[in-house]
Automatic annotation (TrEMBL):
Origin superkingdom: Bacteria
Full protein name: RNase adapter RapZ
Keywords, comma-separated and alphabetical: ATP-binding, GTP-binding, Nucleotide-binding
Binding site for GTP: 59-62
Keyword Transmembrane helix: no
Domain RapZ C-terminal: 164-282
GO molecular function, one term: GTP binding
Organism of this sequence: Wujia chipingensis
Length: 291
């Protein structure tokens, strides 16, 4: 039986995840008082109940009782009740935006600024983040992407590392993405833009992709790039980083960067990380020029 404790920052998606788990066959209880968790675990582990998987939501709504959670977890461990902790997080600007959109008050800032409540909450639940088996940062995740991550962990049973890698193509003439952690310039590769029949196409089209990949520098570049990332990502993970944005840029973000980003995504997707692909500027030339 899997006994999952869903926790994390208010506004990071705990209620959404509990609904997803319920749809996946979990028996879910949200905002269970801390003093009842041990008794609930005892009931859940009773074979007579015939429940395979259980998930409970625990967060800052528990108030002062949240401070007893550490003792509760130690008690569960001593009684050989196995449990997993899923911690949902998001950065401050995203959390503030979500609260403003829903017009809800933060539990710790009902009469003050949302930002202040978020800071207080992060301090109070940091101990749960430190104990978490899985950490998912939902800042840039769509609901369907979050569902995919939950299914991967709790349905497919795949290995999960607490890091989401985003491979993003972009055009330098539109600016480097602000959230980039690593930026690679592929403007040294031959530019399909100067081939009239390829100009309206993108790196998603085979003729463009073939032209870029047929360049003699391409194989060596991809080999060195992949080798470096396979070294860097585990070390970022070791330092506690859970979001990594790898940006690949060319002049317009339509041909070379798209081709390289696609190839890099296909390679990294084979590794035990969550990998996303995003082409930021692929359609901007058409929009700007009115083609």
């Amino acid at each position: 039986m899997r006994f999952v404790i869903v926790t994390g920052m208010s506004g990071a998606g705990k209620s959404t995840v509990l609904k997803m788990l319920e749809d996946m066959g979990f028996f879910c209880v949200d905002n269970l008082p801390v003093m009842l968790i041990e008794k609930f675990a005892e009931i859940a582990h009773d074979d007579k109940l015939e429940v395979d998987n259980v998930a409970i939501g625990v967060d800052i709504r528990s108030g002062q009782a949240l401070g007893e959670m550490s003792v509760c977890l130690e008690t569960l461990k001593k009684r050989n009740f196995t449990y997993e902790i899923l911690f949902l997080d998001a950065n401050e600007p995203v959390l503030v935006k979500r609260y403003k959109e829903t017009r809800r008050a933060h539990p710790l800032s009902k009469h003050g600024r949302i930002n202040e409540g978020i800071v207080k909450e992060r301090e109070k639940i940091e101990f749960l983040r430190q104990r978490a088996d899985y950490i998912i940062d939902t800042s840039n995740l769509l609901t369907r992407e979050l569902k995919h991550e939950i299914e991967k962990i709790f349905v497919e049973g795949k290995q999960y590392n607490n890091i989401i890698v985003t491979v993003m193509s972009f055009g330098f003439k539109y600016g480097i993405p602000r959230d980039s952690d690593l930026v690679f310039d592929v403007r040294f590769l031959p530019n399909p833009y100067y081939v009239p029949e390829l100009r309206p196409q993108t790196g998603n089209d085979k003729p463009v992709s073939d032209m870029v990949k047929d360049c003699k520098e391409y194989p060596a570049f991809m080999e060195k790039l992949t080798d470096m990332l396979e070294f860097l990502i585990p070390n970022y993970l070791k330092e506690g980083k859970n979001q990594l944005v790898i940006s690949v840029g060319c002049t317009g973000g339509k041909h070379r960067s798209v081709t390289v980003a696609n190839a890099l995504y296909e390679t990294l997707e084979k590794l035990p990380y969550t990998v996303r692909l995003y082409h930021r500027d692929i359609g901007k030339d058409r929009i700007v020029k009115g083609e």
